[in-house]
Model the fold of this input.
Amino acid sequence: FEQLLDLDPDNAPALNYLGYILADKGIRLTDALHFIQKALKIRPNSGPYIDSLGWVYFRLGRYEEAREQIEKALELIKVDPVIYEHLGDIYYKLGKNEILSLKLDNQSDEKEEAKFIKRFFKEWQGIKNKFGEILTCIEKSWEKKAEKKEKGYLG
Done:
C-alpha cells in the first residue's frame, strides 16, 4: 500500500486501509492516525473511514474520542458487526477505566455510587439496543445466505 501511495498519495481507500491495518495490529499508530486523517480530508463523511479513526484512537488509548467517532460511524452505516464490535471494546475500556477512577470502596458516599450506577445503567440500555441491531443484521445475513443456497448457482 505504501508503494501505491507513493504513486497516488491521495488515494483515500489505500490511505484508510493502510491506516486501519496498522491500527488493528497496534503498530505505527502515529502513521496510522496520519493516513486515516488524510483519507478523511478527502472523504469526510465516509462511515468506514470514521470507524478507522475511532479504532486508531482506541489503540492509542483515547477511548472517549474513539467512542465519539465509532458512534458517528454507526449513524452513517447503521448495521456493521465490526463497528459494533469496536464499540463494545470501547465501552468495556471506558467502563473499566471509570471503575478504576472512582475506586468505589467503603469511604465513597452513596450519591457518588448512585450517579455511577445510573450512568452505567443508561450505557447498558444503549448496549442492549445496539446488540439487538447486531442480531437483526446477522439474521438478515443468514437469511440471504440461505436464499442463495436454495437458488443454487443459476439462481
